[in-house]
């Protein structure tokens, strides 16, 4: 009977510890849709670090999960930070007038005669010349089929759930950093 009691206490402690870690430090997220292909695919399971932005600032090209509205969370890539001027011209990203390399898009470029990302300026899609304080500009990697800041506007930094650190399902696509 003592042995069973020890095991029961250990299991209860492990479950409470795991629930606490999951609740306060990490969240699991299921990718829905194709907006982040080829980086993430529909049905991928992700581990989202909920505390990283308590200690560090959001960085360009971080993949984040954020509350898009009261019922939905989206996963997108951060393109612009507060104060940035964003433009696309001839399928090239310009941040503050400088070309920014997007190597993560290489697998998606099919060179079918159409640009992966249509040309735009921040002012054309948001009505503002720069990303406002307390917000970020996000885009999906599947630029032709992504509901992102070009349509939904800037994302408040406070709406970010966390940074995607791990893709853990399917196992064959395990990745620890993006």
UniProtKB/TrEMBL annotation:
Active site positions, chain numbering: 35, 76
Record-annotated Peptidase S26 domain positions: 5-169
A single MF term (Gene Ontology): serine-type endopeptidase activity
Reactions mediated catalytically: Cleavage of hydrophobic, N-terminal signal or leader sequences from secreted and periplasmic proteins
Subcellular location: Cell membrane; Membrane
Name of one Pfam family that matches: Peptidase_S26
Keywords: Hydrolase, Protease
Enzyme class: hydrolase
Identification of the protein by name: Signal peptidase I
Organism whose genome encodes this protein: Pontibacillus litoralis JSM 072002
